[in-house]
Amino acid sequence: MIVLKLGGSVITHKDRAETLDGESLEQAADSIAQTLGNEKDALKGGLVLVHGGGSFGHHNASKHGVSTTAGTNDAGAVLEIHGAMKTLNQFVLTRLLERGVQAVPVHPFSTACRDGDGALELPTSQVESMLAEGFVPVLHGDVIAQTGRGATVVSGDELVVELAQALEADRIGLCSTVPGVLDEEDAVIDRISNYEAVESVLGASETTDVTGGMAGKVNGLLELEVAASIFGLDGLASFLEGKNPGTTIE
Ligand SMILES: Nc1ncnc2c1ncn2[C@@H]1O[C@H](COP(=O)(O)OP(=O)(O)OP(=O)(O)O)[C@@H](O)[C@H]1O
Ligand SMILES: C=C(C)CCOP(=O)(O)O
């Protein structure tokens, strides 16, 4: 079973509020549909998709001062952020369904929450049932209720880690706008096994980001027992075929 994230920097123009990158989303949907069609073994046990917020989630969250740690008790703000994420999610679902992928939505706002310490609680039994019925669940970064803070942002990266652990994923991939984690010379780092070794090269995202960017990604993936790959859109087909493009976090 594969957990795959389509980064918001891939499927949106992250520097332009609520602007879809339709061409990149179509390329990603093509790669997913072709793999599901041709190499069912590669996806034995199913595929769970997560997408990021890009310029839909991050711009709206930033506008309301909401992040993974800063919350809001304003339902209007929650609805704007969650609504933008549902809009982006519908674009993703539509592109997949057009290609025969049995994609269905799972909105974290209605299923997940954080406790008073910020720990994520994400039920996965509904995702398991969807997989068993042949669906492709599509989750996404969102806002979720947090004890004592109203609602805070949950990153798609956090969802990937939680899903991979709960569902015992065989493979984990994060498709981003970069070909992998880059070193000082902008060369792709082949493998990362500890955070300190690369901390100095992990910068912020180039555009509005409220969830930690590449540093947060690498930090979260290092918690996993199964290796994860970070790669660019051109590496997506290769990853789905079973290869390890980009950077391996292990
Ligand atoms: N060492 C690094 N290697 C590669 N990218 C880096 C590095 N340091 C910082 N970055 C930035 O991280 C960005 C990718 O992280 P980001 O969280 O924006 O991706 P994403 O997951 O696609 O987006 P979203 O969070 O919207 O889903 C790159 O666009 C780059 O600007
Ligand atoms: C900003 C929001 C609402 C989603 C963040 O998810 P991410 O882009 O995967 O970090």
UniProtKB/TrEMBL annotation:
Entry's EC annotation: 2.7.4.26
GO BP term, example: terpenoid biosynthetic process
Pfam family, one: AA_kinase
Cell cycle is among the record's keywords: no
EC class of the enzyme, as a word: transferase
Binding site for ATP: 5-9, 54, 213, 217
UniProt site (Transition state stabilizer): 14
GO molecular-function terms, A-Z: ATP binding; isopentenyl phosphate kinase activity; kinase activity
Reaction catalysed by this enzyme: isopentenyl phosphate + ATP = isopentenyl diphosphate + ADP
Keyword Protein transport: no
CDD domains hit by this protein: AAK_FomA-like (cd04241)
Highest taxon, organism lineage: Archaea
Domain spans labelled Aspartate/glutamate/uridylate kinase: 1-224
GO cellular component terms, semicolon-separated: cytosol
Keywords from the UniProt entry: ATP-binding, Isoprene biosynthesis, Kinase, Nucleotide-binding, Transferase
Binding, substrate: 53, 58, 156
Function noted in UniProt: Catalyzes the phosphorylation of isopentenyl phosphate (IP) to isopentenyl diphosphate (IPP). Functions in an alternate mevalonate (MVA) pathway leading to IPP, a key precursor for the biosynthesis of isoprenoid compounds such as archaeal membrane lipids.
Record's subunit section: Homodimer.
Similarity comment: Belongs to the isopentenyl phosphate kinase family.
Protein name, entry field: Isopentenyl phosphate kinase
